[in-house]
Amino acid sequence: MSIASRVLSTRWLVRAPIPIFRHGFGWLFGRRLLLLEHVGRTSGHPRYVVLEVVVPEGPDAVIVASGFGPRAQWFRNVVATPACHVTLGRTRRAAVAEVLDRGELDRVLADYARRHPRAWRRLSATMLELNGQPADGSPDIPLVRLVLGEAT
Fold this sequence. Notes:
By secondary structure, the protein is an alpha+beta fold. 36% of the residues lie in helices and 31% in strands. It has a single domain (3-151), classed as Pnp Oxidase, Chain A (Roll), CATH 2.30.110.10. Helix 5 packs across helix 6 (117-131). The longest helix has 15 residues, at 117-131. It starts with a helix and ends with a strand.
């Protein structure tokens, strides 16, 4: 298992930025990371995850990736309940999650691979290692657009 896979599989390590965001210090991560507050599909309780912004789409939308594929809990939760909140830097905003369709997903990933070839090689290899090898050999990485609303 690669170092990246081990880090992403270490629960306490990937959850470490959550209290930093929740205490108002999310600005330390710039606009590269965000805190997604979503509702548990079974419990109905608030859940939190820190995600990397794959594509900033201007001031009112960002695209994030589900690195653990469609089985990731946060992904399954926003599919069930798209209303959520996003904290970017110092600002917490209401948001709505939209799963990208296959055509848009392929376009966004191809653009990312073209703009960041080394990062894409590492990212796709890590995702294949974590999620297994799909039939077509490409990683199963769902993308979600978070459409941002008013600050809360």
